[in-house]
Write a structure and sequence with these properties.
The protein is α+β, with helices and mostly antiparallel strands and 151 residues long. It has a single domain, classed as HIT-like (HIT family, subunit A, 2-Layer Sandwich). It has a 5-stranded antiparallel β-sheet with strand order 1-2-3-5-4, covered by helices on one side.
Length: 151
Amino acid sequence: MPDSTTGTAVSNCPLCRDAGGLLLVKTPKWRVIRSSDDGNFPAFYRLIWNAHVAEFSDLDAAERSECMEAVTAIERVLREALQATKINLATFGNVVPHLHWHVIARFDWDSHFPNPVWGAARREVEGGAEARLALPLVELDRRVAAALLRP
């Protein structure tokens, strides 16, 4: 996803080539997507830095602040809208060394809880996880986008 305002894209980086999921908001510095890879975790969002940098410390102080304000806004929406048991925040980059934050609503009933989403499943969720959410994903996406676009 090359963007001349944010730096040079790296051709073999999937987060430079593609949005990375369902695109909700894109600013000159970052974008927020909802991951749709795994139906076990429907409220799984990622903030992806547009410029190809590997580490959070690659950002200057103002960029770090802007990034974390956006991550915090996503977290607040998930907490308020879903009454999640826990919100997981993570940035790894071991597989894709392009700065991105995972913001994942977790529930004591989810398939892996209390294990990490990348760990072993502990149970099957009857009817699917999306059906157990307090509101439809389209409404959750709308709330996340609205929180991120507030001045």
